[in-house]
Specification:
It is a single chain. The protein has 95 residues and is α+β, with helices and mostly antiparallel strands. The protein is globular. The longest helix has 16 residues, at 2-17. The chain is built from three helices and four strands; from the N terminus they run H-E-E-H-E-E-H. It starts with a helix and ends with a helix.
């Protein structure tokens, strides 16, 4: 979980450099992906999010990421990245 929060810091920092205010509020770790949900600032224009994908792929060193914006009609975006190693999901994680 600690490495996911480090990645969240990289994402927030790169967004700040691009003039996009993003605050990661939730991280969901799955067996093969990590999803970062964050609130974007009121000043952020939607057209600026188009520049975000290649910049984050380079900053994180990941071949492909997914960006979903907006989430549930709120000013939230979701960023999904592939995990370098697969995580075993145990029954206790689900229950």
């Amino acid at each position: 979980m600690e490495s996911a929060w480090r990645e969240a810091g990289v994402i927030e920092g790169r967004c700040e450099e691009l003039g996009i205010g993003l605050n990661i509020e939730n991280i969901q770790i799955g067996p093969s992906t990590v999803r970062f949900d964050g609130a974007i600032s009121e000043k952020t224009q939607v057209r600026m999010l188009g520049r975000l994908k290649p910049e984050l792929e380079y900053a994180l060193g990941i071949g492909s990421i997914g960006i979903e914006a907006p989430i549930s009609g709120r000013k939230f975006i979701g960023i999904t990245t592939a995990r370098s190693e697969r995580r075993m999901i145990r029954l206790g994680d689900v229950i």
